[in-house]
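Long-time lurker. I teach an intro course on protein structure, and each term I like to show students one example going from raw sequence to a predicted 3D structure in token notation. This year I'd like something fresh instead of my usual example. Would anyone be willing to generate the tokens for the chain below so I can use it in lecture? Attribution to the forum is fine with me.
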Amino acid sequence: MPRPRSRVLIAAALAACLCAPASARDSLGVFGNWGAFRDTSVPRCYAIAMAEPSTLERDYEPFASVGTWPRRGIRSQLHVRLSRKLSATQPITLILGRERFTLVGGGGDAWAQDKRMDAAIIAAMRSAGTMIVNATDHRGRRFSNSFDLSGAATAMDAAMVGCARIR
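-- Reply from a regular --
Happy to contribute to a lecture. Here you go:
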């Protein structure tokens, strides 16, 4: 089982593979299980973490990120890459403490329904210890991905500050 810090590094490597060249990315720090990064080539900043390890079947390597794209006017937008290809018809539920949110998504990805929900999710992430996403895969099997939120608030703040001067 990877140690928390190695999960952050794996998430960073995943982000590097999915996005712009790694040389364009600056590490803003590792905070608990979360890392914060700035990518000036886009520009964007984000906090990111891997899901808790699992021995269950996975189609994708799951992670959660909270991103800011200053030039697009997008701040603190949640994105979750889930471990399996999603059913097109079943709900995706995010659980943070006592709060539940119904996400939208497709393929293996999920997001808040709108900016208001993003804000509510980010606020709930700051006080919860764990984030769980429940969904149904394309074969009709229920599954969940869990995320330890240790360091999430600090990483989200670091990402926000990292993009504060970019316009």
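Some talking points for your students: The chain has one domain: 4-55+62-162. The CA atoms of residues 32 and 151 lie 4 Å apart.
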